[in-house]
Specification:
The complex is a heterodimer of chains A (382) and B (251). Chain A contains 17 helices and 4 strands. Chain A is mostly helical and 382 residues long. Chain A has a domain of 231 residues. Chain A has a two-stranded antiparallel sheet with strand order 1-4. Chain A has a two-stranded antiparallel sheet with strand order 2-3. In chain A, strand 2 and strand 3 form a beta hairpin. In chain A, helix 3 runs antiparallel to helix 11. Chain A is globular, with a radius of gyration of 22 Å. Chain A starts with a helix and ends in an 18-residue tail after the last helix. Chain B has a domain of 118 residues: 3-Layer(aba) Sandwich (Rossmann fold). The radius of gyration of chain B is 18 Å and the shape is globular. Classes of the chains: A mainly alpha (382), B alpha/beta (251). At the A-B interface, helix 1, helix 9, helix 10 and helix 11 of A face helix 2, helix 3 and helix 4 of B. The complex binds adenosine-5'-triphosphate (ATP) and magnesium ion. The site of magnesium ion (MG) has 4 residues of chain B, from helix 1.
Chain lengths: 382, 251
Amino acid sequence: MQSQNARQDIILSALFSVAVLTMPIWLQPIGAAYPDLMQKFAIFGLFAIGFNILFGFTGYLSFGHAAFLGVGSYTAVWSFKLLTMNVIPAVIFGTLMAGIFAALIGFISLRRSGIYFSILTLAFAQMSYNLAYSVLTPITNGETGLQLRQQDPRVIDQALGVVPEAGLPVTNLFGFEMQGYTGFYFCAILLIIGFIIALRIARSPFGMMLSAIKSNQNRLNYIGVNTRPYTLAAFVISGMYAGLAGSLMAVTDPLAGAERMQWTASGEVVLMTILGGAGTLLGPVLGAAIIKYFENIFSSFHEAALLSAFDFLPDWLAEPVASVLGLFVGEGWHLTLGAVFMLIVIFMPGGVIEGLNKLVSLVRRRPDDTAPAAVQQPHSAE
Amino acid sequence: MSILQVKGVHKNFAGLRALNDVNLTVEEGSVHAIIGPNGAGKSTLLNCFVGRLEPDTGSVDFNGTSLLGLAPHEINQAGVCRVFQTPEIFGDLTLVENVMIPTLATRDGAFKLNGWDRVDHQAEITEKAEHLLEDVNLIDKKDMKADFLSRGDKRRLELAMCLVQDPKLLLLDEPTAGMSRGDTNDTIDLLKRIGERGITKIVIEHDMHVVFSLAHRISVMAQGTIIAEGAPEEIKGDQRVRDAYLGGAHL
Ligand SMILES: Nc1ncnc2c1ncn2[C@@H]1O[C@H](COP(=O)(O)OP(=O)(O)OP(=O)(O)O)[C@@H](O)[C@H]1O
Ligand SMILES: [Mg+2]
């Protein structure tokens, strides 16, 4: 029976891997099967998986995770500039640097819990944003953002005798250029690894302590557990996921700007996680993909397109309809996001995953099935 | 030999004298009951033993070392576990998980970063937890979420969470409150059985049936101080105790 759980997890990981790697095929019908967008699914999927390790498992709601995303990006770009265009050091340093930042910010923020913790993380992230935007311009290149230049030292590449071509160098994995599908598959494989690590954490004694922290921190103290290092470890791990996501952004598009650290970016990952289902394993990935997919669709719409869509209406009606709907598309797509988010939180507080679970159990329910659903809560969480 | 020594403990809450010069010695392996009217300071005294409160003055020594200034988890790791007056359990987790967590805490110490092991591959942890759930008659509900338990069941779950740790000193704050007569008797039997394992227990209880079936020694508290102490027979006959608390009729 115990190895059965392990086997189920292996099947889950395998299905997840197949689903991720075949995205270029099955996303075709909904027009999402191009590398730029799929890369975003993978990168924000990682960001949300990591965020969920803190928020979903432990219950600590951070409003400042974009800071670690930004740190990952800046570090990766610096690795490209100073060391090599190879993505491996960039990803490793980006992840580690975010981990160091997370350790510092977490150490202080975790002295409080609940709303005070959230506010502290938000304050730290805004500080980081302002530092990146103005104070630390030598490191971040301020408003313009940190970019590659042809005359960057790239000492490792130099030492290896890589001949600089005309124009900006391209990020690569031992010679494979990180463009198009190569870039996507690189991100996809890291997403799969990130998912499996999160799965293992959820099933581990460590993960069990995290869920106990979420449930009743007080009780945990009185049975001999020091909760601080647990919350700090969860915070650092989730910060490292954010750093990894940030460095992947730089891998696929080697520049880093301060806006990556803004509070809206921190808020977005909260939305993704809750929309998909906080505390579940698949939910955050799903939430990230849903938001990035609809962002892509809605933000490309504009009023002229709407007008032609409502061509069939008489003019006096078509124009007001188009201008009202126009508020919700293009730049205003966040309005749509907000509305959808409210609907989800009100009607499906467990997120999309809970909705799917309910649907499955509705379909499966036999007429003679009278067992109260609330009593038997299997260890599914997906 | 005494396992717990409390000397001259005072605790004030904004002018209220919750504890007023409490002295108490608990013998190793014994069951020591603390009785007294509501608001006498019984729970406050326990709070001073587990690191929830720091006494204003006085000393609390466990096995010869002071407990003052230690964090709750350190006191637990030293071998003291407490069942609270209002049940403290992991409401969103299943009963087995509720008991596995203290088992892990005893095995792994206050912190261990074992994020890659599978907890369900550690058969000894699950078995131990299920064994304890059997002891408290909750094994049938092991996959239920703890929030759905009745108040009495929650209390027994919490008891199992402490017992699984094999503590040296077990503090029980009204362990049978909210239980039916039958469950109360089961709990008495259980506590007697674990008495055979030599766990020292301090029991706060209003139910005199429980007190007199378990206790080797009884301390009576009123208004923040211990007004009488002795063997159960002595306490039964003590006039001050009758006046302060028992009103005669209970006995
Ligand atoms: N944290 C606190 N702050 C202020 N007053 C407190 C606090 N804790 C307890 N008290 C007060 O101290 C007194 C003793 O309370 P305590 O809970 O120890 O009584 P008790 O003997 O356990 O009573 P009961 O049998 O009702 O549980 C009460 O008057 C209570 O109101
Ligand atoms: Mg009390």
